[in-house]
Amino acid sequence: MEDQHSRLAIIRVKELAKERHASDYAIVYDENDQNENIKPLSGVTFADTTYTGKPQSIKITGVSADSVDDVKVPADAYEITGVTTQTNAGTYQFTLTAKEGSGFRGSTVGTWKINKGKTSFSVKGATVKAKKLKNKKQAVTVKVSNLSTGSSKPTYAIKKVTKGQKKKVKINKKTGKVTLKKGCKKCKITVVATSKANANCEKATATAEIVVK
């Protein structure tokens, strides 16, 4: 009888041990498992802009998330930090970070670009009567107009002169002033104006004619 009671007591102790052991378990959640339904930001597309001389802001055309579906992230789901507005040509970095509670997570880094602007301008030559050059020299100036914003001030050079008259013509490279020496005969002088490339604008050239008739 005592042996039977002893066996029952041992069984009860084992059951209690199992109950107590079970109560010691703690459930631990993996953060990655919790976030597996919250899609991470994965990429951004944007439109390049061109220098205008005025401040310009990044133009985002689309933000994507890492998903098997073609998920497009709405603009109110993220915030942008970094260089988002700039005037000068160049490449600038920014970061997109998902807002809390937006249904997305993480961030993505991108760069946007302001391209150099195209230089444009017009030039105008002049006409001189040869008879006025018989006894004295005369000067005329190649005139530049409508030079685009941010472009370099043009410099000038003689590209071509009618044969036999080259020594009778000289030019101020900085101002575009063309001096026709005494005795210069009928001829055509082609002047090229060059706006050099700079940090914001591309190089451009234009030509004008000085005509002695």
CATH architecture annotation of the largest domain: Sandwich
Radius of gyration: 40 Å
Tally of alpha and pi helices: 2
CATH class of the largest domain: Mainly Beta
**Strand percentage:** 35-45%
CATH topology of the largest domain: Immunoglobulin-like
Instruction: Give the biggest sheet.
Output: 4 strands, mixed
Assembly context of the chains: single chain
Q: State the distance separating the first and last CA atoms.
A: 144 Å
Number of domains: 2
The largest sheet has its strands arranged as 2-9-7-5
Compute the average pLDDT: 87
Shape: rod-shaped
Helix percentage = 10-25%
Can you offer a commentary on this structure?
By secondary structure, the protein is mainly β. The protein folds into 2 domains: 37-115; 122-212, Immunoglobulin-like. It contains 2 helices and 18 strands. It has helices at 2-23, 31-34, and strands at 39-47, 49-50, 56-57, 59-65, 78-82, 85-86, 90-98, 104-105, 107-115, 122-124, 126-128, 138-141, 143-145, 155-161, 169-171, 177-180, 187-195, 204-212. The strands form 6 sheets. The chain has a 4-stranded mixed β-sheet, with no helix packed on it. A 4-stranded mixed β-sheet has the order 11-18-17-14, with no helix packed on it. The protein has a 3-stranded mixed β-sheet with strand order 4-1-8, with no helix packed on it. The longest helix is centred in the first third of the chain and has 22 residues, at 2-23. It is rod-shaped. 17% of the residues are buried. The model is unreliable at 20-33 (pLDDT under 50).
